[in-house]
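QA checklist item 7 of 12: single-chain prediction sanity check.
[x] sequence parsed
[x] length recorded as 346
[x] structure emitted
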Amino acid sequence: MQIPRLFPLPMLALLASCAAQADPARGRTGGGSDTGTTQTDSGGLDTGAADTSADTAEDTGAADTSTDTTPAGPTIEIATWNTARFFDRVCDSGRCDAGQNDYEELPSAAQFQYKTSQLATGITRQDADIMLLQEVESQDCIDALIAALPAGRWPVAVLGEMGQDASVDVAILANGELVDVIRHRSVALPLPSGGSTTFTREFLEVELLIQGRPVTVFSAHFRSKSNDDPARRLAEARGAAAIVAASAAASPDSLVVLGGDLNDTPDSEPLLSLTSPGILVRVASDIVPNDWTYAFNSQRDAIDHLLIATTASGGYVAGSATVFRDATGGLLTSDHASLRASFYLP
């Protein structure tokens, strides 16, 4: 099923402040400290088997998929995965003592190799054309990951480096041609009660050509609920909605997809602020209740999402959303499952 096109809605007032800077450069610069999630990795050896069976809970949010699902054209796979604290072998912060509960980890050579190998296994298993990643510390991590993957499989590898010590950043891998990289970390985001903030991590936009067709993807990682700041997460969601809407309006012939660890559930205010204007649609709504990507204290939540801009081109292949998880509820060395879906190219 191709998502129906909507008439463009009025842009949010925030658009006036969303002047992004094109910056195709990559690499790390150091300095500062990261305020991101502090969830720890279980460290166990996981099987990585995909669990796509339906849970027993009542399905309360599945989309109507009774309409024609004949493919409208070529399709690609896009996946999002929080890699869970993929740190390199340099202690940038000078505080990497697990015994002291320091935030930054300093893996041994063997630990780093194992983590890299497990992530490469998970990425290969998902067999996507675009991978949206979160919690990647540095270009060293990206380089090691690319070296562990099949040669030539990912010609595009972009890191959304925040330039802070011990930052865990977003990244995008793609099997296509890189057109442009746009970084939005300095955009002022109005807070609900006044004042402004910025994105907790880079809100990374990458323009691509896939099979010769234009595709724009965003990799996001909103404020975590550890030492929660819900107002900032809501500001990030509203800002992201405005930026993606502007991108779709500027490139209506592109497939435009936002994905990442948004750290909130579909019924939350931040997610509703992304979907309620009608510009963005959460694609995994048609696999509820099996859309959950994170489990904590026996509670299962969908906090990793893929959303498509309906005001641009292309579409979501109905029913194609798949969650990859193992017995831990996460995938391999990550405490997050991954989410993959198929999309029609424009």
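[x] summary fact logged: Residues 72-344 form a domain with the Deoxyribonuclease I; Chain A fold (CATH 3.60.10.10).
[ ] second reviewer sign-off
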